[in-house]
Amino acid sequence: MNKYIYILLLIIFAFQAHSHTEHLKGIKKIEMEVLRNGEVIGYSNYFFDHGNDKMTVKNYTKFKVELFGVSVFSVSSETIEGYENNELIYFKSNTFQNDKEKYVNLNYNLSSKKLIIDGSSYKGDASADCVIGSWWNHKILKTNCQISPLSGSIKDQVVTFIGKENITLYGKNYSVDHFKLKSKDESLPNDKKLDFDIWFNSENNLILRVAYLKMGKWEYRLKNFE
Length: 226
Description:
Layout: H1 2-13, E1 29-36, E2 39-51, E3 54-67, E4 70-84, E5 87-97, E6 100-109, E7 114-119, E8 123-127, E9 131-132, E10 145-147, E11 154-169, E12 172-183, E13 195-201, E14 206-213, E15 217-225
Parallel strand pairs: 9-10
Antiparallel strand pairs: 1-2, 1-15, 2-3, 3-4, 4-5, 5-6, 6-7, 7-8, 10-11, 11-12, 12-13, 13-14, 14-15
């Protein structure tokens, strides 16, 4: 059970480092609903602050899974990340999974040009090309590694373009690119593999929908942005 909860959390917060921040200069807020088996169980909202060549992004995520009226899985998380001249400078997160706390403190080292990670499950460095998970950052579709925003662990990944599609969300129609994101290491146990479907809208440079199967069908849907 704990293994499934861990991979759920890796997926839920999915991906944030080096990013195309210039594409989001006009964005102030992104609101996403979290669904499980078609039912809204929470939210993941992002707030952007732009100034000169700097940008900060704050995320608040909260949801709860209940079975037979009993809470079996709850998450409450806050993150903040800072960019300067399109480069990730820092990332910090605090997450409560039920009563257990997880964290990441990450900083960019200018001398080594690496990301220095102090996380609840990994302490060390990582390539600046790795991306820390956040669904606002579409660079997740262009990189080959991710850093867990929960614990700082590093995962290799492969992204495949599936095709162009049309989807409808909250009464609006979108033309999107459909991608598949999977773990590079196919020998990993199923409960540790990454396996997402991601729908990206190139017109506004936003990920509109994410879907995956882990203890049910999970979705992230873009509800609103400003």
